[in-house]
Amino acid sequence: MTESSALVDVIFWVGAIAAIGASVMVVAARDVLKSAVFLAASFLAVGGIYVLLRAEFLAAVQVLIYVGAVSILIIFTIMMVRQIAGGNRSAGPFYVVTGAIAATLVSLAVIYAAYNTDWSDLDAAAASDQRVEAALTGSYASQPAPGNPKVDIIVAPATAAANSHPGVFERSTGNLGQLFIRDYVLAFEIISLVLLAALIGALVLARERRPT
Amino acid sequence: MLELVHLQVLSAALFSIGLYGVLARRSAVLVLISIELMLNAVNVNLIGLGAFADRPAESRVFGQILAIFVITISAAELGLAFAIILKLFRSRGSVNTDELNLMKW
Amino acid sequence: MGAHDLWLLSPQLAMAALACTALVVDLATGRSKLVLWLSLIGLVIPAALSIALWAANPADTLVFFGAASVDRFSLFFTLLFTGVAAAVIVSAEKYASRFQEQRGEFVGLILASTTGMMLLASANELITIYVSLELTALPVAALLAFLREDRSAEAGMKFLILSGVSSALLLYGLVFIFGFTGTTRLDEIFARIGDLQASGGFDSTVPFGSYGLLLGIALAISGFAFKLAAAPFQMWVPDAYEGGPTPVVAFLSVASKAAGFAVVLRILYSAFGSPELAVEWSALFAVLAVVTMTLGNLMALPQKNVKRLLGYSTISQAGFMLIGLAAVSANTSAGSLVAGPQSVVFYLAGYAFTNLAVFLGVIAITNRTNDNTIAGFAGMGRRAPVTALLLAIGLISLLGLPPTVGFMSKIFVFNAAVNSGLAWLALAGVLNSVISAYYYLRVIRAMYMEAPTSDERITLDPSLGVATGIAAFGAVLFGVAPWFLLRAAEIAVRSLSGVAGS
Q1: Euclidean distance between CA atoms A210 and C303, whole angstroms
Q2: Domains contained in chain B, number
Q3: Which structural domain, as residue segments, surrounds residue B21?
Q4: What pLDDT digit, counting tens, does each position of C341-351 carry?
Q5: A141-154, pLDDT tens digit by residue?
Q6: What does pLDDT average to over chain C?
Q7: Tens-digit pLDDT profile for residues C279-289
Q8: How far is B15 from C215, CA to CA, in rounded Å?
Q9: How do the domains of chain C map onto residue ranges?
Q10: Which residues of C touch B18 (CB under 8 A)?
Q11: What gap in Å lies between CA A147 and CA C391, rounded to an integer?
């Protein structure tokens, strides 16, 4: 990141300001429908930042699911239940004050922690970790995980260096796919059950009641 | 020069805006939207930590996996939430979601 | 992934298969009674598999690349959840007539949520924990909204929204933990923290050695507080309890809470179990315990609705359990770290019997009277002698009087607290127990001392009667002879890495 870093900075600041501005509008808008549209804008801006970090697959997911499905679902519901649209009222002064205090405290705490934590400390620790060590030497596939005598999936040899381009991902989509069907296969399978349960629940609740 | 802390501050800002929306707004739909903002903020932080971590490419994408799970589950959660809103709408004829008494702790 | 993994995870897989079977049978036949009894019989399979695995006690517990750890700790809870699910399904047999028309789905969703809890108790990796947590929460949110009344939909909505907020907080915490340690597996987090401590990467002036980790753990704990029904996320409890269907509320208050404590225990001991960190979170839980039980008790005092009262009672019981989490350094003959978590696990098991007896008793009575107020329970000692007796046993156990399991649980928890130098916490617990006598005894007084509002006898259904009887019997049995359960809790806790290793 040498000659392009100024451009990266500009794009990041534009995206960040757009995301924050849109989010403020989500909370502040009088009309819930407008909130939903600003939500989509905020998602898009954040998706742009993902592209900047070279997390292309995640950016695609962000646009497809958040902007394409979630925002549309919200807008669709608001249209269907029209009374919601004007109902973005404040919950009352007590809650506004509580909300403002809580939001300020949380963001201050997070920013303080972010500044005062040496996030690079973990590099020393990372080196001692067997899994990463194995990945560094490209021997992950031949090292069976505990409890798994046979590992059938062959993993591509890892890059020898650690992060040579801080701030961007490398080859993230391919690695993602491998992690999905290897390390996180259990979570991946549980998700299907979560979706099934949500589907059944939503179906039952939204089903038109038979006239009795 | 883009640094990790920039992304963390952006994430903190988005998260607190969402938190404010959850606490200070009355409409259930807006509270749900604010929760989406919070989850989105979590993802920003997650991706930042992954992108700047000084580790091999394989282990840096761990965070992206969680982000994808978060997006999927929040979509499922919203689907369920709107089914409940629809049910309320039907049973009351005309529903004002802000009569939900959500804030009566 | 091999046969070994599938065998170890077989209780969870069987439960997931059972949930799908229930849904398919309901879809194909539309006969809800069939679905109900089929699932009850089917629940024997995961229970049997859990017992078989407990007996086999395989040396290698990690499955699916370390995503889950099927040790005896998780099997203890697997068995507990299976039992609770069975009781809840039995209790819904008559109650389900109040649902709109979807009784088969009720069973399917209960079983899906149970699957999530079983996975949660064995999850050993942050992403799996989050996903399992959502699998337990989403079906419950749908189930809370199952009744025809608006209040029920509101209960579901409120639960869903607060579950969303708490999982956002939890995720933010997990992200910081992941960012700081660079891994999502609990055992690897433990190793990394050990390395950092050894290499001087920890700042001893900051709690938890670093602001990043401090914030991560604080956010994660406040997210989990929702599951535990503990402060600062207890406010959904009373409304959800009052509005939701009683069987679902029973499920929520027993199984969901146990699942929350199981995962918190595992994270604390497997990932943050090093003595330096344990002291820090012990202090945090001590404060949470006092706040939670006091808040729950004081709010319970003026309640007139039994379900709402039980909601606040659940909060205060969570406070007592948190004492066990705070009692981390109890030095007993059993070993330094065992007494605290052992008392929590024992408390949870005893609480399952106790609270099921109470809830099933309430369901048996309100199925007929349809009146959830305390006044509606007047004279039940005469109108429904057996049910009232079982309900009274449950309430006495909640209050913590001998010879019930509630008494024993409190003794063990307070004992662990005193042994870890937290005598003031035990004292606060005793004081709170005294306060709680007021509202528990009020229900018993209504049942036995007040005149009934009608002379109609309330008979107990055979299936519901058997389930309530078993629960109340367990509450007395483990109060008189707690040793078997106490030993099982100790074995379970010792299989947690972090407890055994010390």
Answers
A1: 36
A2: 1
A3: 4-92
A4: 899 999 999 99
A5: 434 444 444 444 43
A6: 89
A7: 888 888 999 99
A8: 14
A9: 274-496
A10: 168
A11: 47
